[in-house]
Amino acid sequence: MKEILTLTVKLLLITAIVAALLGGINMVTEPIIAENNEATFQANLKELLPGAESFELDGTKLPEPEAGVKVNGVYCGMAADGTPVGYVADAVCSEGYGGDVVVMTGVDTEGKITKVKVTEMEETPGLGAKCQTDWINQYTGLTENIVVSKNGSAGDNPNKIDAISGATITSKAVTKAVNNSVSAVIVVINDNSGAAPEAEAPAEGEAVEGEAPADAEAVEGEAPAEGEAVEEGSAPEQEEAPADETAEIDAAETEGGAE
């Protein structure tokens, strides 16, 4: 019994020491890892939008993406003088063959793709993993609503990419992330441009500020119609009683006087 207790205490002490060491190592390495991840992210932004000197996360409310896609944010790339030169969207699609596919998409101020990069994925080597090769360059110059073409299925559609042979699922996952990224960027571009919707024309019969009133409407200051009273406060004319009624009244008054 004593040996069992001794062994138990030793194991607890070893476990506590190892946990403390791991915690200490994590505290030391965590900020370093975060710094390296941020440096890699900034390098990716610069690669996708070479003309930008700095990047800033845009605060525009993004549209709701399609199911299976999440757009983490849109970053505005700015020149040295602060002028926007393009945008980079960071998105993830959960519909890859091996799981999540993380995609960053560079878009210029006209809504055209400058470059696409798959930063994280777990696709099959030699098949879906080819999304990180030169295959990805097909997206450059395209815009939203890109179609995945398999064996020429997209025909003459210029806004298409050819699927990776044997990895159509991966091709569609990457394209879905790219399409939602471009759509988000276009919303940001329109928001930053300050474009306002056109004013709607008033419905027929509605009054419009500044317009002359219709002919049938009364206008303040117009001359009154013939027969209307002109002077304010003038007494209305009394209606004359008919001749027969006047005679009856006179007769009644005479009879009353005689009584």
Please tell me about this protein's structure:
- With 259 residues, this protein is of the alpha+beta class.
- The chain has a domain of 140 residues.
- The protein contains 3 helices and 7 strands, in the order αβββββββαα.
- Strands 1-2-3-4-5 form a 5-stranded antiparallel β-sheet, sandwiched between helices. Strands 6-7 form a two-stranded parallel sheet.
- A hairpin with a 5-residue loop joins strand 2 and strand 3.
- The radius of gyration is 41 Å and the shape is extended.
- The termini are far apart.
- The C terminus is likely disordered.
Q: Could you give a quick summary of the protein structure above?
A:
The chain has three helices and seven strands; from the N terminus they run H-E-E-E-E-E-E-E-H-H. The protein is α+β, with helices and mostly antiparallel strands.
List keywords for this structure.
3 helices, two-stranded parallel sheet, 259 residues, alpha+beta, disordered C terminus, 7 strands, five-stranded antiparallel β-sheet
